[in-house]
Amino acid sequence: MKYAQIKEYDIADGPGVRVSLFVSGCRNACPGCFNPETWDFDYGKTYTLETEDRILRLLMPEYIEGLTLLGGEPFEPENQSVLVGLLRKVKRIYPKKTVWCYTGYTYERDLLQGGDKHTSHTDEMLSLIDVLVDGRFLLAEKDITLLYRGSRNQRILALHAAGPEGNCEDSGAVDAEQQIADIAKGDSNWK
Ligand code: SF4
User: Fold this and answer.
1) Ligand 1 atom 8, closest CA
2) Ligand 1 atom with least separation from CA of 102
3) Interacting residues of 50 by C-beta distance below 8 A, sequence separation 6+
4) Half-sphere exposure of 129 (CA within 13 A, CB side)
5) Residue 136 has pLDDT above 60, yes or no
6) Which pLDDT score, from 0 to 100, does residue 122 have?
7) Cα 105–108–112 angle (5° rounding)?
């Protein structure tokens, strides 16, 4: 997988201060897309174990509320297979931090079983995402006053505990350093 950018302090894509990963590759081709360079699966840098380690460390400070995945398209099948591994680690190390994910696909139609983008990783990925912002960006529905989304058709779906306001009372990172080191040791098969 390639990625376009990691934002260390993102205050626009979910509640609080967040770490954001902009992945590369998107087949939605929404007219007016804010990030068309990321449609190309080869755009940007290669996502490596070091990239993952960096993200896990960036999440460590207490003031970081959580991780946001966007792009590009996190639910393109090529990206799901990598991102599910990242999300597993994030939830294991930081169970109280929230994960937000933006997708141009529609939750019920595309991501659930039987949908075009449903893969062997999708159910697990969805189980690790607290809030999903779904739907294509539609220029005709664009509204710059909306919080956390670009067009009115897009939905903010609280898949698990945390809603749009976030309810992360304690973003604790107890023993995170040790856990990241332990995970790195077990990652020898990672590619
Ligand atoms: S889903 Fe997002 S990245 Fe993909 S074309 Fe639409 S707005 Fe752009």
Assistant:
1) 33
2) 2
3) none
4) 29
5) yes
6) 98
7) 90
Higher local confidence (pLDDT), 80 or 166: 80
Q: What is the mean pLDDT of residues 95-108?
A: 97
What is the chain's length?
191
CA atoms of 163 and 15, how far apart (whole Å): 9
Find out whether the beta carbon of 19 lies less than 6 Å from any atom of ligand 1: no
Atom of ligand 1 nearest to the CA of 137: 7
Bridge partners of 66, per DSSP, are 18, 98
The pTM assigned to this predicted structure is 0.88
Residue 94 in contact with ligand 1 by CB distance below 6 A: no
Residue with CA closest to ligand 1 atom 7: 33
Q: Give helix 77-93 / helix 176-185 axis angle, nearest 10°.
A: 130
